[in-house]
Amino acid sequence: MKSASETNRLLAQLPRRDREDVLEHCQDVELMQGQVLAQPGEPVGHVYFPRTSSIARVVEAGGGSSLGVALIGNEGMFGASLLLGIASSPARAVVQSHGSALRMSAARFRMSLTEGSALRRAGHSYLFVLFDQLARTSGCTRFHLLEHRLARWLLMTSDRAGSSTFHMTHEFLAHTLGVRRVGITRAATDLQRRKLIHYARGEIVILDRKGLVKAACACYAADLASYQRVLG
Amino acid sequence: MKSASETNRLLAQLPRRDREDVLEHCQDVELMQGQVLAQPGEPVGHVYFPRTSSIARVVEAGGGSSLGVALIGNEGMFGASLLLGIASSPARAVVQSHGSALRMSAARFRMSLTEGSALRRAGHSYLFVLFDQLARTSGCTRFHLLEHRLARWLLMTSDRAGSSTFHMTHEFLAHTLGVRRVGITRAATDLQRRKLIHYARGEIVILDRKGLVKAACACYAADLASYQRVLG
DNA sequence: GATGTTCTGTGCGCTGCCGCGCAGACGGGC
DNA sequence: GCCCGTCTGCGCGGCAGCGCACAGAACATC
To answer: Is the Cβ–Cβ distance between B201 and B119 less than 8 Å?
Structure first.
């Protein structure tokens, strides 16, 4: 039995029988940061239930610009669109922070989605949460200051990694927040100056979690509330 | 029998029996621009299948800012989140352009979603398309010039209204594109100068559809392709 | 035709972020 | 110990869109 912090919470919610049925067909894999799990339009070969890793959905907008629109960790799964009967991924899926995940073939996953199954119900609920997060992130990206968005994203990553320390360079963050690397440097420097975080060569440490929550936009809290309401 | 341009295409795709079963429980209603069909968090009382109207999903981001993240017209439906078993709306739903729609109670809609029903399959596919549109719009809002975004939105509205003429003030557009009214004035003036559109006191006419498509970002074409791939 | 409302258009200073170029700091490999 | 690749930091001009204030134009009402 894995410790609580290393469990996928979506699976943990399932009744024992359903959960064991899923686990039986999963392999434990290690995901590396930057690894691309799916490309837009291509068929999804596997679904993933992250444990300590996290996966970002990233859209491209031409001219080398990209933007992370959702972050998937131990609270959810990648490949939920299979629940809608569609095998292709709507966006690119990039491993955001390395760690472990449970992997299952798409075909096997579909077989587990029998009518009325707990997995299907949970998956549907999670899809709703994702939907909500996507919409919120749209507004967040449009209106909120980079520093607030950065704080939000760091908190989200930390929550999903189950740790206040993780590895992530400015360059990498810039791609998922849709800004220049220097923009991240600026914002991160400020957060560091205020003793909310510490980082050096990609190692990020959250020093003052509460302070960071205050520095983040309300979207962070809204995400948590949305998850809690539907899946808590 | 209504003319093709006044039919909801999602319903039109259903096998005859399924479609008639749905139509039997629908009322024909007229939606007025600006009308709010759902508030975030509140339970959804009815689902809508637009015919000549369109409905925008709008998120608020504090400080009076708002942003339209998806547009629903005769190609889809409002209330699709009921397919995920959740009765509440993730965002605000505002009638974007007036026109007719078919309305059905949420309770009745749920009853029609029997296992394996064509309505459910179509709904799931449409949810996927919406998902895709949401993600794309995020990137579009972040990176593309207002003028391109405006062109895209006008085309989307025109397609859903089934007409090259519709009513929409700068102020209203500003709210859904997440910019100042004056920003729309500027962009619209330019499109008009290039003889792509004409407008006066809220009456918008698309003069050169092909030219407007060129003036829009690739997101417009991508939306069409996405719909075609899944539901065409 | 006088009045109030709605809609559209213009000017001006401001700011958050961009693009680019460059430089310093750290660390691993040989 | 040295080199080279990675990561972080800074300066400068530029630009899209913002906030504000104001003005003209069309329409509705009476």
So the answer is: no
